[in-house]
Write a structure and sequence with these properties.
Elements: H1 20-33, H2 40-46, E1 49-50, E2 56-57, E3 93-98, H3 103-111, E4 116-120, H4 132-135, E5 146-149, H5 154-167, E6 177-181, H6 183-190, H7 197-209, E7 213-219, H8 221-225, H9 230-250, H10 255-259, E8 262-268, H11 272-292, E9 303-307, H12 319-333, E10 338-340, H13 353-369, H14 383-405, H15 409-415, H16 417-434, H17 474-490, E11 495-500, H18 504-519, E12 524-526, H19 531-534, E13 538-542, H20 545-561, E14 566-570, E15 581-583, H21 589-599
Parallel strand pairs: 3-4, 3-10, 4-5, 5-6, 6-7, 7-8, 8-9, 9-10, 11-12, 11-13, 13-14, 14-15
Antiparallel strand pairs: 1-2
Length: 603
């Protein structure tokens, strides 16, 4: 929007407005200069980026990109937030995840910025139900909301928490948090079901006596952690929420009361705009469900957002701090009610005190120093964000309808349909990761082989037996583990000799590319000395296309004569004698590296 100065003089008044078609024509001209012959109408598509769920991000959004009116914060369809004042009063709820009964860690968090606790409770978790009271010693339960995650032990864990409220003199209206009932989420995690009837009874109790407590969580993390897309995560959460509404209303609650017993949990990734659009779309979709159920004013979705476990890497875990910061920023911009920042060493085991401090301080800095929560829905009105929100909402609604046609979330889980759809999505994403189209800093790009490993105490084993848990780094982690085993057994890593041809200006780009590529698989690149001195069995030529024409074949033959069993060339595939294979941007790095380790005898 252009705001005219006080005197009404617009500096652009003498110039005609540029049209969209003129812009497309200019873009097509630039693309033609780079060797891409496209028409004016195709130019914009050529610069667009494909996302999952059939969505595309275009290079330009204008007022022509219409999207439905998002409404106002606190009013249906709640796209801009479930409350009229958003998080302006004090920021979002900073919720820390605890998997072991460590009272000192719990109190340290609460004394230093954490505002609520999320506890893994149960015999297989770090908080056995009988130890809940001792773990919460010193915690003011009327000030710090508690959220339980107890799986099939939800009823005894919830009863124990309610007993603690009574024992410690916490008034029923002062108790806040969530009892964590989520039978379908548990089944997605473990493949085992548990009866929802006791959870429905807890919901009736909360509705009648504990206005600040909710009984159920609609956890979409199992679908995200199984490799699902944003639309699949939303679609599965909608189907789960609808299933719970049916059960709760069948148990005697009104639709309004049933909606008030649900809290939704989503993942926030380092894809900032997609995360913002996903959380805004989630609120709009749930508002549509509430409207269809005859309770439009009950459709304000309460959101608990967790930084994505899938994006966390085990190698160079310090980079995870950057990932979680961007994810937290996106969650805050999108108006999340509660945010859990996973510590940077989450994938390695139990976080230490430093990691927990960084995690909670991430929210503190964004709230207290960046003042992120002072503006409600700052992304609202952006043509890009509004259009992406709308497109993602439609894609998620399609997923939801497919699940409903299959008989609902329970039937779709048990038939394997949900698992199959998620596996298909993850297979496509795995191919992009393998080809480094989706780069992982510190893992597939710019790995550091000399990095000192970060070691943590083992964390309790998470629930398993249902949908798989995937990580973006898993393929590269397997390669690095093979290299580590070789290092432990022989005292050195597998090596490859990088033969740089010509001056630095000619070979630096491809030398850097090759070094990054092979280090991603734990293969140490050697650039100094001769091939014989390197201790390597394979080599890679690195230079410009011009020098390849002049020197590639002779150099490849010389390397073979010196004992090279396999010769790579960094660049476009050609027909050079003596060269066995070619590596270039977009090649399947995982396949190349795995085959290379196989030839080197690294198992």
């Amino acid at each position: 929007m252009t705001v005219l100065p006080d005197d009404g003089l617009s500096l652009a008044a003498e110039f005609p407005d540029a049209t969209h078609e003129q812009w497309q024509h200019l873009v097509a001209g630039v693309l033609r200069k780079s060797g891409k012959e496209v028409s004016d109408s195709e130019a914009e598509y050529a610069l667009s980026t494909a996302l999952e769920d059939g969505l595309r991000t275009r290079p330009l959004y204008t007022a022509r990109d219409h999207a439905p009116d998002p409404g106002l914060p606190g009013f249906a369809p709640f796209v801009r937030g479930g409350r009229a004042d958003g998080n302006t009063a004090g920021g979002w709820d900073v919720r820390q995840w605890h998997t072991v009964a460590d009272t000192s860690a719990v109190l340290a968090d609460l004394e230093n910025g954490v505002t609520s606790l999320w506890l893994a409770v149960g015999a297989s978790a770090g908080f056995p139900v009988p130890s809940l009271g001792s773990a919460l010693d010193g915690v003011y339960l009327d000030l710090a909301p508690v959220v339980l995650d107890a799986g099939d032990e939800t009823e005894p864990a919830a009863r124990e928490l309610l007993r603690l409220y009574e024992e410690r003199g916490v008034a029923a209206e002062a108790a806040r948090g969530n009892l964590g009932g989520d039978p379908l989420g548990h089944e997605a995690r473990t493949g085992r079901a548990y009866d929802i009837a006791p959870v429905a009874e807890l919901a009736r109790l909360c509705a009648a006596q504990y206005p600040g407590l909710r009984a159920l969580t609609v956890d979409a993390l199992p679908y995200h952690e199984a490799g699902g897309s944003a639309a699949q995560e939303l679609g599965c959460s909608l189907a789960t929420g609808v299933a719970y509404l049916r059960e709760l209303t069948g148990a005697g609650l009104s639709t309004e009361q049933a909606c008030a017993q649900l809290e939704f949990r989503y993942a926030a990734t380092a894809d900032q705009f997609l995360t913002v659009a996903k959380l805004r779309a989630a609120r709009r979709l749930w508002a549509r469900v509430a409207e269809a159920c005859g309770a439009p004013q009950a459709g304000a979705q309460l959101q608990h957002v967790v930084t994505s476990p899938v994006m966390m890497t085990r190698r160079d875990p310090w980079v995870n701090m950057l990932r979680t910061t961007v994810a937290t920023l996106a969650a805050g911009v999108a108006g999340a009610d509660a945010v859990t920042v996973l510590p940077f060493d989450h994938a390695l085991g139990l976080p230490d005190a430093f990691a927990r401090r960084i995690a909670r301080n991430t929210s503190s800095i964004l709230i207290e120093e960046s003042h992120l929560s002072r503006v409600i829905d700052p992304a609202g009105g952006s043509w890009y964000v509004e259009r992406l929100t709308d497109e993602l909402a439609h894609a998620a609604w399609d997923v939801f309808q497919e699940i409903e046609r299959a008989g609902g979330q329970t039937a779709a889980l048990r038939s394997g349909m949900v698992g199959e759809r998620l596996a298909e999505t993850w297979a496509r994403r795995s191919a992009k990761l393998a080809k480094r189209r989706e780069p992982l800093t510190g893992v597939s790009e710019f790995p550091h082989l000399a990095e000192k490993p970060v070691v943590r105490e083992p964390a309790p084993e998470p629930p398993s037996g249902g949908l798989p848990r995937v990580r973006r780094d898993e393929a590269y982690e397997a390669l690095r583990a093979r290299s580590d085993a070789h290092l432990a057994a022989t005292g050195s890593r597998p090596r490859i000799f990088l033969a740089a041809l010509g001056p630095a200006a000619a070979h630096t780009a491809r030398l850097t590319f090759a070094a990054n590529l092979f280090q991603a698989g734990g293969i140490e690149p050697v650039t100094e000395g001769t091939f014989e001195e390197s201790g390597a069995r394979e080599a890679c030529l690195c230079s410009s296309d011009t020098l390849y024409e002049e020197q590639a074949e002779a150099t490849a033959q010389a390397l073979r004569a010196a004992g090279a069993h396999h010769v790579f060339l960094a660049g476009r595939p050609g027909t050079y004698a003596g060269v066995d294979s070619y590596v270039s941007a977009g090649c399947d790095a995982v396949a190349v590296l795995s085959a290379t380790l196989d030839r080197m005898g690294v198992s």
